[in-house]
Amino acid sequence: MASELTYRGGAAPGSASDGGEYSPKPSKPLSWLTRAARYAAAEHRPVFALAGMLLAAALFSLYAPSASSSDASSGRAVSAAAATFSHLSSLPSSASSLHGSAGGKVPLGLRRRALRVLVTGGAGFVGSHLVDRLVERGDSVIVVDNFFTGRKDNVAHHLANPRFEVIRHDVVEPILLEVDQIYHLACPASPVHYKIGARFLLTSTSEVYGDPLQHPQVETYWGNVNPIGVRSCYDEGKRTAETLTMDYHRGANLEVRIARIFNTYGPRMCIDDGRVVSNFVAQALRKEPLTVYGDGKQTRSFQYVSDLVEGLMSLMEGEHIGPFNLGNPGEFTMLELAKVVQDTIDPNARIEFRPNTADDPHKRKPDITRAKELLGWEPKVPLREGLPLMVTDFRKRIFGDQEA
Ligand code: UDP
């Protein structure tokens, strides 16, 4: 596990053009140094860089005799050096002690080395579930969230944990943190280059397939997106994020992973953001009619959030860049979904038809063959099992203590 930190897997330049799979490439032990030097020169901060290197060297010497293996500490040192270049004062003084304590309590060889993991958008719906799993497995987690859509409540249960930190910050602004892995869930922008030496996982979306002409969708399908439609800011934004991620991988040798997430539901989902599962569940609980858009024959595939989190973690830990479809292949029309919601919450819930939104994809279903074969991942929770778990959470949040 620890040796994966120094392994810089990735595609050979030019091998990504067909959207196919990438083969790992041999590591370049000193490539971080040249990249770091280029960065420092470009930023006209050689003096700070020098000071940073000295500080990093000092940190190194503190780390060197520690119990962790040399390959384990090298990944951290890369990030430490990077962090000191331009923000000497921002190097967290607690950083080494966090890891020291995580490693100190555990006898060598009994457990994997704890990582420090950054989750952007970690106070959101999916992010907070991912944070739960990372904390549970012993990692230190830093959440960066601007709370536009994320909620402090979602991570409040970790606040007393010394291995957990939360920073209110918008990811469109650079921030320098010392980490081993980055899960980039925050939606806006993609400043991938601000982390040297960490593995960067982009959460892209099934929306990159647009209104697909191929069904189910495989990762090699390039999609059918309206570039000027009402949904295109999201669809094309994510497509551009994939492009940038791959360009940084090819051009700057950044270690990247790309997940294409299909419709996901579960506890902590926003109640009123208009997604179909949250709408139907909230409507049924409030005794309002279920609003079915269009004729209700359009399809989606609904994945329970814990399955997604497992998929994201398998992708981050594995050696394959992707992109990987992460979704549940179980396909439902919106009318079928309404029936499941009726069966789960209220058999008498009425259905009300509403005009559909523009450019709504007619069908969507992931082909997950690639994820099964290369990540050993597939979803485990069917809709009829996952939905009741979400209903319990929504009931509490909508009615508070009255009916909880
Ligand atoms: N939808 C619906 N009723 C609602 C909200 C959405 O019938 O109250 C439909 C919507 O038209 C779309 C599907 O549900 O066909 C999924 O919409 P959602 O916004 O949840 O996900 P996305 O379209 O991004 O896959």
UniProtKB/TrEMBL annotation:
Its cofactor is NAD(+). One of its GO terms (biological process) is D-xylose metabolic process. Its EC number is 4.1.1.35. It is an enzyme of class 4 (lyase). One of its GO terms (cellular component) is Golgi cisterna membrane. Pathway: Nucleotide-sugar biosynthesis; UDP-alpha-D-xylose biosynthesis; UDP-alpha-D-xylose from UDP-alpha-D-glucuronate: step 1/1. Residues 117-190 form the NAD-dependent epimerase/dehydratase domain. It catalyses: UDP-alpha-D-glucuronate + H(+) = UDP-alpha-D-xylose + CO2. Residues 197-388 form the NAD(P)-binding domain. Gene3D superfamilies: NAD(P)-binding Rossmann-like Domain. InterPro entries: Epimerase_deHydtase, NAD(P)-bd_dom, NAD(P)-bd_dom_sf, UXS-like. The keyword tRNA-binding does not apply. Keywords: Decarboxylase, Glycoprotein, Golgi apparatus, Lyase, Membrane, NAD, Signal-anchor, Transmembrane, Transmembrane helix. Residues 9-20 have a biased composition (Low complexity). Belongs to the NAD(P)-dependent epimerase/dehydratase family. UDP-glucuronic acid decarboxylase subfamily. This is UDP-glucuronic acid decarboxylase 1.
